[in-house]
C-alpha cells in the first residue's frame, strides 16, 4: 500500500536542528560561514547577462520573471562559477541557470505553458512562448562553447529537468509505495540538472577524460547540498513535493532525520570527489573553488532565506 505525502509542519525545536545540520555541513566542508548573508552582485556581469537575453530578441523589464531569474543565475555564476576562465562561459552559466529557474517556476504554477517545450525543441520549432523561446536558444548555445559530447550532455540534462519538472508537478499527489524506496532519488535525478552543472564546473578546454569519473559523485554532491540548503525555505512555503519529504515518507522517518541523512550523503560524496580529482592539482583546485562558491551561493541568494536562521551568530 502507499500513501501520498502528508503536509507536516516542523516545530520550533526543529529549526534548531536545521541550524545544527547546516552548521555541521559548513564545518565538514571546512568553509567559513560569511560574516553576512549577502554578496554584492557584480553589476557589469549582470548587465552582460541581460544583454545576452536582449541579443536573443527578448525584452527585459525589471518586473519580469526573466529579470528575477537572470539575477538568480548571475549570483550563481559569480559565486560558484567565477573560476571559469572566460566571460562567455560565466555568462552562459548565469543564463543557463536563469532560464531553468523560469522553467521551475512555470512548472509549479502554470505547467500547461511548459508542456509543449520538449516537442517544439526536438522538432526545431519556435516555442509558442517568448520566455520558452529564450530557454530553447540558450540551450542551443551550449554547442558554441563546449565540445559536442559535453554540449550534448549539458542539453540532455536540461531537457531531462524540463520533462521531470512537468512529471513532478503532475504527480505531486501520487501515492507513494513503501516497496519503491528508489523512487525519491529517481525523481530527484530527473530534476537535479546535476550532470550539466558538474560538466560546467570545468573549463570547456579540459578533456572530458580528466574529470568524467568524478561526475557521478559530483552530481550527488550538487543535488544533496542543494536539497539540504533549500529545505528551510521550502518548509516555510509548506512545500512537501521535494526530495527530503519523499525520503522521509519512503523510509518512515521524520523530515529532520531525512535531512540529516541527506547531509551525510553530501559529505560522503564530497570526500569521494576530492579523492578522484586530488591527483590532479589543477582539477582539485577547480573543484575546491566551485565547492565553496556553490555552498555560499545558497547563503547569498535571498531565494533560500538562510539569513533567517542567523547562522553566523551561532558559529
Folded structure, characterized:
There is one protein chain. The protein is built from 16 helices and 2 strands. By secondary structure, it is mainly α. It has one domain: Farnesyl Diphosphate Synthase (Orthogonal Bundle). The protein has a two-stranded antiparallel ribbon with strand order 1-2. The longest helix is centred in the N-terminal third of the chain and has 23 residues, at 87-109. The radius of gyration is 19 Å and the shape is globular. It starts with a strand and ends in a 15-residue tail after the last helix. The mean pLDDT is 90.
Strand content: under 5%
Query: Which strand order spans the largest sheet, edge to edge or round the barrel?
Result: 1-2
Secondary-structure element series: EHHHHHHHHHEHHHHHHH
The CATH superfamily appears as Farnesyl Diphosphate Synthase
Indicate the mean pLDDT: 90
Structural class: mainly alpha
What is the subunit organization of this protein? Answer: single chain
Distance between the termini: 44 Å
Q: What's the helix count?
A: 16
Which CATH first-tier class would you pick?
Mainly Alpha
Q: How many E strands?
A: 2
- Sheet having the most strands: 2 strands, antiparallel
Q: What's the CATH architecture name?
A: Orthogonal Bundle
Domain count, please report it. Answer: 1
Poorly predicted runs of 5 or more residues: none
Taken from the alpha-carbon principal axes, the silhouette is: globular
CATH topology: Farnesyl Diphosphate Synthase
Q: What is the alpha-carbon Rg in Å?
A: 19 Å
Helix content: 55-70%
Amino acid at each position: 500500500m502507499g500513501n501520498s505525502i502528508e503536509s507536516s509542519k516542523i516545530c520550533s525545536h526543529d529549526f534548531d536542528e536545521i541550524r545544527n545540520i547546516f552548521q555541521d555541513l559548513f564545518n565538514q566542508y571546512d568553509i567559513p560561514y560569511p560574516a553576512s548573508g549577502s554578496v554584492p552582485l557584480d553589476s557589469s556581469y549582470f548587465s552582460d547577462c541581460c544583454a545576452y537575453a536582449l541579443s536573443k530578441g527578448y525584452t527585459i523589464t525589471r518586473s519580469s520573471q526573466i529579470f528575477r531569474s537572470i539575477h538568480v543565475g548571475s549570483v550563481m555564476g559569480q559565486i560558484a562559477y567565477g573560476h571559469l576562465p572566460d566571460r562567455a562561459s560565466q555568462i552562459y552559466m548565469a543564463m543557463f541557470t536563469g532560464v531553468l529557474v523560469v522553467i521551475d517556476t512555470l512548472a509549479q504554477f502554470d505547467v500547461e505553458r511548459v508542456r509543449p517545450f520538449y516537442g517544439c525543441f526536438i522538432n526545431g520549432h519556435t516555442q509558442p512562448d517568448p520566455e520558452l523561446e529564450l530557454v530553447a536558444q540558450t540551450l542551443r548555445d551550449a554547442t558554441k562553447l563546449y565540445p559536442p559530447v559535453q554540449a550534448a550532455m549539458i542539453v540532455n540534462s536540461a531537457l531531462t529537468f524540463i520533462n521531470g519538472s512537468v512529471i513532478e508537478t503532475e504527480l505531486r499527489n501520487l501515492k507513494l509505495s513503501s516497496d519503491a524506496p528508489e523512487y525519491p532519488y529517481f525523481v530527484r535525478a530527473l530534476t537535479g540538472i546535476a550532470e550539466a552543472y558538474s560538466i560546467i564546473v570545468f573549463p570547456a578546454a579540459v578533456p572530458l577524460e580528466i574529470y568524467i569519473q568524478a561526475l557521478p559523485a559530483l552530481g550527488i554532491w550538487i543535488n544533496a547540498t542543494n536539497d539540504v540548503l533549500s529545505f528551510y525555505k521550502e518548509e516555510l512555503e509548506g512545500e512537501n513535493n521535494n526530495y527530503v519529504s519523499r525520503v522521509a515518507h519512503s523510509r518512515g522517518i521524520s523530515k529532520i532525520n531525512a535531512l540529516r541523512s541527506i547531509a551525510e550523503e553530501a559529505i560522503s560524496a564530497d570526500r569521494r570527489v576530492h579523492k578522484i580529482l586530488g591527483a590532479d592539482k589543477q582539477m582539485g583546485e577547480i573543484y575546491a573553488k566551485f565547492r565553496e562558491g556553490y555552498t555560499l551561493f545558497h547563503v547569498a541568494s535571498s531565494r533560500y532565506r538562510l539569513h533567517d536562521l542567523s547562522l553566523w551568530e551561532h558559529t
